[in-house]
Design brief:
Blueprint (H helix, E strand, L loop, with lengths): L25 E4 L4 E3 L3 E2 L7 E6 L2 E4 L9 E3 L4 E7 L7 E8 L2 E9 L3 E2 L9 E3 L4 E2 L23 E5 L6 E11 L1 E8 L7 E9 L6 E6 L10 E3 L7 E11 L3 E13 L1
Parallel strand pairs: 1-9
Antiparallel strand pairs: 2-7, 3-7, 4-6, 4-8, 5-7, 8-9, 10-20, 11-14, 12-13, 13-20, 14-19, 15-18, 15-20, 16-17, 16-19
C-alpha cells in the first residue's frame, strides 16, 4: 500500500536520523599539535548509518583515527581529531557528519605574548664591541636594554671597522619559551644599516639552531619587519646575529626588537 514503511524485525520502522550531538570546542592549544575531542554517543537510530569527516579525522569506539567514510550504529562512540597549524590565536576545525547530522570541533591555538621584559637584569649579553646609544638608554649595570622599551627614539648600536662583523645580542629568558615571531625595527646610523641577520635558539647558550634568516637586505630606517621562525621548540636562549651591514661603523643598529611566543 502506498505510504507504508517496511518494518524491521520486531515491528519497528527504520530510523537513520541520529539525535544531534556536540563536540566541545577547546582553546589555548599548542601550535602544530594533534587535538582530540570529547566522545559523543550515537543515539536515536535503529540501523547502520554513514559517517564522514572534513578537515581532520574521527575514531569509532576508541579505535584508530581515520579520514575515510564509514558506518556507525546505535550507542557507538565517536571522537574527532584536528591538527593545529603554525599560527597563534587561530581556530582549526574538523566537521563530522553522521547520518546527515553534523557538528564541528574547533581547537584554537594559544595567544602570543612578548617574551622579553623591559628589565632582564643579568640575562642579556652581547658581543665585545662596545654598545653605544643615545639618551643614556643603554645601561649594562642595571640590565636595561633600549630594544624593547616601546620607544623609537632610543636605539642600540655596536660598531666595528668592517661591515661584515658578526655582532649579536643574546637573551636568556626566565624559562624556556617557543618564539613564533620576531619583529625588528632598524636604525640607520649615517649610511650604515643592517643588511643580513639571523635569529637563533638554544637550550644551553652554546649550541645554537638557526630559526630564521634574512639575507635579502632592502631594509629602511624606522620601519618594522616581521619574521616567522620555523620553530616548534621551546628555547631558554635566543639571539639575533647581524652578519652584514651596508657600511662599516655601527653595523648592529636597531631601534626595537620584539620576540613573540608562549
Amino acid at each position: 500500500m502506498a505510504g507504508t514503511h517496511q518494518l524491521l524485525a520486531g515491528g519497528f520502522a527504520p530510523d537513520g536520523v541520529p539525535a544531534s550531538f556536540t563536540f566541545t570546542d577547546v582553546t589555548s592549544q599548542n601550535l602544530s599539535t594533534v587535538v582530540t575531542s570529547n566522545s559523543i554517543t550515537v543515539s536515536d537510530i535503529n540501523i547502520s548509518i554513514p559517517i564522514t569527516v572534513s578537515g581532520g579525522s574521527y575514531s569509532i569506539n576508541g579505535g584508530g583515527f581515520t579520514t575515510s567514510a564509514g558506518t556507525v550504529t546505535k550507542n557507538d562512540t565517536v571522537r574527532a581529531q584536528v591538527t593545529t597549524g603554525t599560527n597563534a590565536s587561530t581556530a582549526y576545525s574538523v566537521t563530522v557528519t553522521i547520518g546527515g547530522v553534523s557538528d564541528t570541533f574547533t581547537a584554537t591555538t594559544k595567544s602570543v605574548a612578548q617574551l622579553q621584559t623591559d628589565q632582564l637584569t643579568g640575562s642579556v649579553t652581547y658581543t665585545s664591541a662596545a654598545p653605544v646609544s643615545t639618551g643614556g638608554s643603554w645601561e649594562p649595570s642595571n640590565g636595561y636594554v633600549p630594544l624593547y622599551d616601546n620607544s623609537i627614539t632610543t636605539f642600540m648600536g655596536m660598531g666595528s671597522a668592517v661591515a661584515t662583523a658578526n655582532h649579536w645580542i643574546r637573551f636568556q629568558l626566565p624559562s624556556a619559551k617557543r618564539c613564533q615571531s620576531l619583529k625588528v625595527r632598524p636604525y640607520s646610523v649615517g649610511v650604515s644599516l643592517i643588511t643580513e641577520f639571523h635569529f637563533d635558539g638554544s637550550s644551553n647558550g652554546s649550541s645554537w639552531t638557526t630559526l630564521a634568516s634574512n639575507t635579502a637586505g632592502g631594509y629602511a630606517d624606522n620601519t618594522d619587519y616581521l619574521l616567522n621562525p620555523n620553530n616548534s621548540t621551546s628555547y631558554l636562549y635566543y639571539r639575533l646575529r647581524v652578519t652584514l651591514s651596508s657600511a662599516a661603523g655601527y653595523d648592529f643598529s636597531l631601534r626595537e626588537l620584539e620576540m613573540l611566543g608562549y
